[in-house]
Design goal:
Low-confidence stretches: 4-20, 125-129, 162-186
Number of strands: 8
Shape: globular
Strand content: 15-25%
Radius of gyration: 22 Å
Mean pLDDT: 74
Number of helices: 10
């Protein structure tokens, strides 16, 4: 009886560990349309800002074009496309959500359109502890098939508390000073760039990358929830 009890406890622990373990998948299994359609050019739309940070949109928009180009895709110059949209009276991407994707192909001759949402752009400050959180959600949509080609979410959490500065009251005061200075000087842009690279690590390489069509079996940790995939 004791052996049976031990067996069931061990089995339960295994199940719990498996359920908590990060889900790994391959690029071909998760994003087969990327390989089928093989988009070469991507139009980047201004990000949708779902946070209370008014400057998040401006800062974030400077960080997405470079990693996409590094991944082997031709990207339309973001400042130019943004200006063209403004000339057409479109200042917010929310106005383009229901627009037929074929229109982007007609106007810009792009194979795909990248929609991004800034989910978190938060600085949490607690005197001796401070964290910076930047979270972005990306979706690449085809202008040919109207299908979602790729989806992912990237989140970066940075500790700004300055680490261990020694014990006692003097150590606490020193840590509080380091935290306050680090929080005041926190530059979101490098961390937004990190979140982008984290998300793009799951994207199949484009035509202009040496590993194009050679990364189908590359594994990555899927952070996207089932709700976000719908």
């Amino acid at each position: 009886m004791k052996n049976n009890k031990t067996f069931f406890i061990s089995l339960l622990l295994v199940v719990l560990l498996c359920s908590c373990a990060p889900k790994q998948t391959t690029k071909i299994a998760e994003f087969p349309l990327m390989y089928e359609e093989g988009p070469q050019s991507i139009l980047i739309l201004p990000p949708i800002n779902e946070t209370t940070a008014a400057d998040a949109k401006e800062y974030y928009s400077t960080t997405i074009q470079e990693p996409l180009a590094y991944w082997g895709y031709y990207t339309f110059p973001y400042p130019i496309t943004s200006e063209i949209l403004k000339m057409e009276g479109i200042y917010d991407t929310e106005l383009l959500i229901d627009m037929p994707l074929a229109k982007f192909r007609e106007y810009f001759e792009s194979d795909a359109v990248l929609f991004t949402k800034i989910k978190k752009w938060d600085l949490s400050y607690l005197v001796i502890a401070s964290t910076l959180t930047v979270s972005v959600e990306c979706a690449l949509k085809s202008t040919i098939s109207d299908q979602d080609l790729w989806k992912y979410t990237g989140t970066v959490v940075v500790d700004l508390s300055g680490g261990n500065t020694g014990g006692g009251l003097a150590g606490l005061i020193a840590k509080a000073i380091v935290t306050a200075v680090s929080s005041a000087m926190a530059d979101y842009v490098p961390y937004a760039r990190q979140a982008n690279y984290m998300a793009l690590s799951s994207m199949p390489y484009g035509k202009y990358h040496p590993q194009h069509n050679q990364d189908q079996q590359t594994k990555f940790i899927d952070q996207t929830t089932e709700e976000e995939k719908k």
